Known about the structure:
This protein is an alpha/beta fold. It has four helices and five strands.
Amino acid sequence: MKIKQVTEQFSISDQLAPEDLDTLAGSGVEILICNRPDGEAAEQISFAELAGEAEARGIKTFHIPFKSGHLDAEIAREFGECLEDGKRIHAFCRTGNRSFSAYVAAQ
């Protein structure tokens, strides 16, 4: 996992593995947003499996998936609602680019 700190409240990364959740929880992440559709790649862990692991560590999860190039107003709205909470948020996708795009669109 390669974390990029965008703001004090918000960070992004590439695909997560369950063991990465300890790092995120230890850094104070309270909300995890997955922007990757399930089944995008064979080796990808399902959102449900990752969400269960995250929630066991006290991290609330949201699945706001979209394919590259398909960011729309509804996705930006959902993403923005998560940002309004004021909590420490980490979003991820395959490379982090979609998550950053959703963050910018939500601003």
